[in-house]
Design goal:
By secondary structure, the protein is mainly alpha-helical. It has three helices and no strands.
Length: 55
C-alpha cells in the first residue's frame, strides 16, 4: 500500500511538471513570435522610388 501511495505522488509530480513545461513553452513561443522583426520600407523596395533617383 505504501509503494502505491509513493507512485501516486510521483505521477502527480510528473503531471504537474509536464503542465508547467507546456505552459512555459507556450509563453516563450508567443513572446518569440511577437518579437519578429518587420521589414522596413527600404528593405521591401517600394516601386517607383529608388535611392539612385533621389540623388
Amino acid at each position: 500500500m505504501e509503494v502505491y501511495t509513493q507512485m501516486k505522488h510521483v505521477r502527480i509530480a510528473a503531471m504537474v511538471l509536464a503542465v508547467c513545461l507546456l505552459v512555459c513553452q507556450s509563453v516563450a513561443l508567443a513572446q518569440d513570435l511577437g518579437a519578429a522583426r518587420k521589414p522596413t520600407s527600404r528593405s521591401r523596395g517600394k516601386p517607383g522610388r529608388s535611392r539612385k533617383a533621389r540623388s
